[in-house]
Specification:
With 267 residues, the chain is mainly alpha-helical. It has helices at residues 32-36, 42-51, 57-70, 78-88, 93-103, 111-124, 131-139, 164-176, 183-198, 204-214, 219-229, 231-244; strands spanning 10-15, 18-27, 30-31.
Length: 267
């Protein structure tokens, strides 16, 4: 009996001499290695995987730009620090990536923050005065496994003003997607008012949420892709710390000596 696999994403034609090896692979109807390879960009292929349709030129450019923006969250990001800890501690490379995913999945600028930010943008329908009632609406919804949200998703509860990289990213991404009715444009026009309503500055997760909405991604798709796009930086920093060793670990403290370190006298 032939096994039936139900998926709209992928289809394979097996090799004549090996039913367990694929001869032709189709993604949403496109021959991946015969048609897409060498013709489609990384962003176009990723969009096809998630949406099962080819992106427009502007959508592909928008996703490409967001991929650069998110590729390395930086040393201060919790998910990157988790990967660095795994690297310097001698854990496996897979452990470093899993640590980055685990720590970068939550409500504080992580994947779940994007998940909720997308829904907040959708629910508010670009009406700033709807944000307070939207907070109450989602707070009354079914309890989930994640910790209770302590701030409006997409904003930084520890920030004092919107960082320059977020402003620069917002301006650039708009240039790749010059749609006057886009969520990006609306966010650009109303950022200051939104920050005043939220009580906090815009976070990168909020910017990403607006991009994912313009790419017509669902909240769960946005959550997944956000975490994926942030992994390259975590991987690179983990490998660097693995090579440098704990003596050169950032933020360890200049001149700090561990009282129970038998090698402290030789530093």
């Amino acid at each position: 009996m032939t096994e039936k696999i139900t998926t709209k994403i992928w289809d394979e034609v097996p090799e004549e001499d090996n039913p367990f090896a694929a001869k032709t692979c189709y993604c949403a109807g496109y021959d991946v290695y015969g048609d897409l390879l060498g013709k489609a960009s990384w962003s176009e292929y990723i969009y096809l995987l998630f949406k099962l349709e080819k992106p427009t030129r502007q959508q592909a450019a928008l996703l490409e730009g967001l991929a650069v923006v998110l590729a390395n969250p930086g040393l201060r990001d919790h998910s990157v620090r988790a990967a660095m800890n795994a690297g310097v501690g001698g854990s496996t490379h897979a452990s470093a990536l899993m640590a980055a995913i685990a720590v970068g999945a939550g409500n504080l600028g992580g994947g779940r923050d994007v998940y909720w930010a997308v829904q907040y943008f959708q629910k508010c329908d670009r009406q700033i005065d709807q944000w307070p009632s939207t907070v109450e609406y989602f707070s009354s919804q079914e309890v989930e496994v994640w910790p209770e949200r302590e701030h409006i998703p997409g904003f930084d509860p520890n920030g004092s003003s919107c960082p320059l990289p977020i402003k620069q990213s917002l301006s650039y991404l708009i240039s790749t997607y010059p749609e006057p009715e886009s969520h990006l444009q609306w966010l650009f026009n109303n950022r200051a008012a939104l920050e005043e309503t939220a009580g906090y500055p815009l976070a990168m997760s909020g910017l990403a949420a607006a991009v994912f909405l313009d790419l017509d991604l669902k909240p769960e798709q946005a959550e997944m892709l956000y975490m994926i796009l942030r992994l390259p930086g975590a991987a690179a920093h983990a490998l660097e710390q693995e090579k440098n060793g704990w003596r050169k670990y950032p933020f360890f403290g200049s001149g700090l000596v561990l009282t129970d370190d038998p090698n402290s006298a030789s530093r």
